[in-house]
């Protein structure tokens, strides 16, 4: 089967002229840059969007991370389906879906509409990302060219996620929050037109079976667990519905894992996780990228809501973090050569954890200079971990299983992003609601409204007497600041535990 597929790929690539190969790379890398931008572009637009749509705390978290969770849940599925129906067809369909979903998001007038549009964006992104690696492998047969192409492709998503807040700040400041989605449409139109002309069709002659039951179990189980998390944060506690949903989601995920172990052609082959280094590196990537995306999201909210930064200023404030992240990714191979992959990865996790702890202890929106050093350290450490973690995942898998390992690697990044915002966002919401101080002159109904979210407190303040409004805004900022500090401290503890796990479990296998 592998020989048939390799023959098919070689023949397809032989017919691809050099200029067309690089145009193909430009199309797939451009689309991945757009997918990365959409992961974080909404972060700085959240305050202005919240004032217009007034989502609940759980609704806001769904708006932010339903994109990455949908993407993570469908990546492997879309890859398998693309092998069967054709990768070119899958990618072009993904472009169309992404463009239509972007337009729908831009013109959303309610929280439910925006959540649905963001989920559709995740579906489109999964269709795009799942087939682009296979397309590159088909088009680039020379090992050196393929390595360069894969390097450009990999960095495109990371760069997109990093510059997303700045793009969002620029666009929101000039045209409003809906424009962060609308700018996708002309780019997608260009990618669709060029891609239709230059991307060659390819498919696996002997594709794996597409198991619909596995898809339903994985998506429904993940949705149930995340829904329970968000509701627990919104209500600052649990009830029968929340517990029941969490249990049902967990059972569905358990059934998904059992099914993958029993069927002949699983959607996700869990035997790869028997390799200690593979499973450890995957957990490192999930923990690190989850903390990094959560830092991007909550830092932008903290700067705007507590520090009164404009969207553009908040986006610019993240640029040192983004620059340090890029430097960390570039210098990761040097760090691995000097100290070994295990200790470089462990040290970078510790550096990231110390940086988050410093932000929690001394972070002050009124003194950005105090934040600068921790932001640089956080970005640098995260860049090293993401690069070496991904390399460890691929290095721990057998060469003949590199395709499956790559799918799990991509999924771990997106799953980390979704779960990081979901889990830590739940904590922040609970701390905000329980920690909101009493405000003189604010009745029970007003306090109930203010507890919903910072945006609700801000909207309520506009209709209160000046003294009460000032007291309410001060209390809301204090509660949100406390929640942000708790989230940073919790993420730091999680990274320390992850670093300990890496130090213990990433030791090389015994020889002889």
Automatic annotation (TrEMBL):
Residues spanning the membrane: 22-46, 58-78, 90-109, 115-140, 147-171, 177-198, 210-229, 235-257, 278-303, 315-336, 343-362, 368-390, 411-432, 487-506
Keyword Membrane: yes
Top-level lineage group: Bacteria
Membrane topology term: Multi-pass membrane protein
Subcellular location: Cell membrane
UniProt keyword list: Antibiotic resistance, Cell membrane, Membrane, Transmembrane, Transmembrane helix, Transport
Domain Major facilitator superfamily (MFS) profile: 24-511
Pfam family, one: MFS_1
Name the record gives this protein: MFS transporter
């Amino acid at each position: 089967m592998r020989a048939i597929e390799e023959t098919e790929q070689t023949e397809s690539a032989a017919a691809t002229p050099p200029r067309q190969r690089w145009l193909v790379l430009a199309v797939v890398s451009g689309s991945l840059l757009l997918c990365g931008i959409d992961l974080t572009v909404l972060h700085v637009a959240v305050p202005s969007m919240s004032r217009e749509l007034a989502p609940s705390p759980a609704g806001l978290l769904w708006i932010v991370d339903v994109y990455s969770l949908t993407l993570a849940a469908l990546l492997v599925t879309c890859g398998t389906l693309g092998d069967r129906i054709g990768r070119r067809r899958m990618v072009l369909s993904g472009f169309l879906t992404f463009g239509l979903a972007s337009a729908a998001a831009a013109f959303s007038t309610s929280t439910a509409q925006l959540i649905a549009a963001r989920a559709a964006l995740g579906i489109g992104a999964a269709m795009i990302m799942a087939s682009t690696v296979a397309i590159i492998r088909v088009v680039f047969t020379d090992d050196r060219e393929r390595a360069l192409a894969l390097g450009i492709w990999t960095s495109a998503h990371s760069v997109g996620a990093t510059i997303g807040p700045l793009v969002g700040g620029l666009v929101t400041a000039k045209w409003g929050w809906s424009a962060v989605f609308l700018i996708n449409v002309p780019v997608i139109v260009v990618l669709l037109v060029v891609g239709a002309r230059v991307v060659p069709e390819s498919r696996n002659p002997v594709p794996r079976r597409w198991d619909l039951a596995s898809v339903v179990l994985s998506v429904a189980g993940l949705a149930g667990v995340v829904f329970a998390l968000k509701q627990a944060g919104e209500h600052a506690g649990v009830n029968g519905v929340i517990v029941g949903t969490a249990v049902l989601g967990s059972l569905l995920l358990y059934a998904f894992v059992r099914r993958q172990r029993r069927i002949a052609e699983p959607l996700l082959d869990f035997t790869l996780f028997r390799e200690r280094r593979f499973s450890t590196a995957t957990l490192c990537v999930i923990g690190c990228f989850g903390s990094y995306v959560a830092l991007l999201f909550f830092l932008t909210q903290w700067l705007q809501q507590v520090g009164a930064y404009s969207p553009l200023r908040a986006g610019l404030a993240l640029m040192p973090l983004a620059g340090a992240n890029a430097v960390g990714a570039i210098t990761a191979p040097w760090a691995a050569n000097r100290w070994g992959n295990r200790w470089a990865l462990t040290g970078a996790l510790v550096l990231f954890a110390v940086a988050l702890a410093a932000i929690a202890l001394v972070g002050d929106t009124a003194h950005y200079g105090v934040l600068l050093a921790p932001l640089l350290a956080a970005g640098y450490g995260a860049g090293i971990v993401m690069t070496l973690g991904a390399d460890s995942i691929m290095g721990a898998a057998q060469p003949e299983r590199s395709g499956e390992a790559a799918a799990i690697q991509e999924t771990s990044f997106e799953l980390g992003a979704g779960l990081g915002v979901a889990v830590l966002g739940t904590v922040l919401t609970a701390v905000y609601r329980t920690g909101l101080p009493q405000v003189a002159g604010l009745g029970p109904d007003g306090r109930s409204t203010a507890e919903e979210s910072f945006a609700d407190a801000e909207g309520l303040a506009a209709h209160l007497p000046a003294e009460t409004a000032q007291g309410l805004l001060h209390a809301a900022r204090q509660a949100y600041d406390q929640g942000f500090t708790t989230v940073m401290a919790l993420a730091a503890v999680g990274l320390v535990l992850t670093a300990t796990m890496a130090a213990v479990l990433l030791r090389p296998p015994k020889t002889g």
